[in-house]
Task: inverse folding
């Protein structure tokens, strides 16, 4: 297993991101963790208690903030090996009630922010013949979700972005992927989504249980490893057997 990687993780203080941070730290990697809340990142750092964890709050939809994160990586580690784009927002909002500002906000957080992070970090990933970009998408793009048109559209756009980057940076040895969870029960999801939606997600799966952030670590860790060296531009669905493509 490859160790001593420099891993940048967005949305790192959330339920999913924090699980990824711990997995990479436990493997001996160095993690640069970012989220929108400095307080949440401070709590993350306290819980991880690792000198290999570096934190910085940032708004990934702000180009200046993503460049500042790249500067932090440049100054502290000099390179980035793996970028994991986890940050996202998934409010329920009827389509006919969305304003243009509502639409742009969710597109910016889930798609534009991912693109800006890739743009900021790829110069630090390229040049050594090996690298990874792992974007966390959503299996909701296949069947659609009522009241989440902006979110689903953004996650669908993530696939096109990832495939284009795989083509553009393959000659550099950089592999790009999308991991698509089903409804994953984090604290934020429990708060935002009605119990009826959570129950329906369980009922339609082959594996009839809640999906948790830990269910995604195997796929993410595999893709971040040399075992995935000849896989790129691909989408992996991790949803307990709901969508089968």
Result:
């Amino acid at each position: 297993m490859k160790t001593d990687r420099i891993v940048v993780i967005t949305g790192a203080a959330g339920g999913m991101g924090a699980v990824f941070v711990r997995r990479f730290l436990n493997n001996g990697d160095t993690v640069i963790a970012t989220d929108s809340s400095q307080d949440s990142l401070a709590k993350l750092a306290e819980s991880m208690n690792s000198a290999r964890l570096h934190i910085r709050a940032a708004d990934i939809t702000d180009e200046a903030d993503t460049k500042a994160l790249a500067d932090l990586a440049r100054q502290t580690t000099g390179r980035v090996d793996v970028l994991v784009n986890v940050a996202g927002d998934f409010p329920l909002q009827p389509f006919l009630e969305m304003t243009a500002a509502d639409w742009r906000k969710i597109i910016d957080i889930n798609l534009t922010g991912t693109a800006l992070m890739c743009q900021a970090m790829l110069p630090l990933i390229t040049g050594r013949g090996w690298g990874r970009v792992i974007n966390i998408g959503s299996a909701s793009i296949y069947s659609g979700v009522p009241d989440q048109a902006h979110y689903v559209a953004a996650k669908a756009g993530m696939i096109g972005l990832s495939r284009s980057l795989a083509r553009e940076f393959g000659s550099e040895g950089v592999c790009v992927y999308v991991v698509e969870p089903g409804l994953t029960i984090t604290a934020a999801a429990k708060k935002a989504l009605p119990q009826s939606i959570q129950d329906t997600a369980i009922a339609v799966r082959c594996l009839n249980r809640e999906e948790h952030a830990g269910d995604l670590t195997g796929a993410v860790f595999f893709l971040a490893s040399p075992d995935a060296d000849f896989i790129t531009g691909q989408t992996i669905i991790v949803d307990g057997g709901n969508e089968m493509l």
Observations:
- The first helix runs from residue 15 to 26.
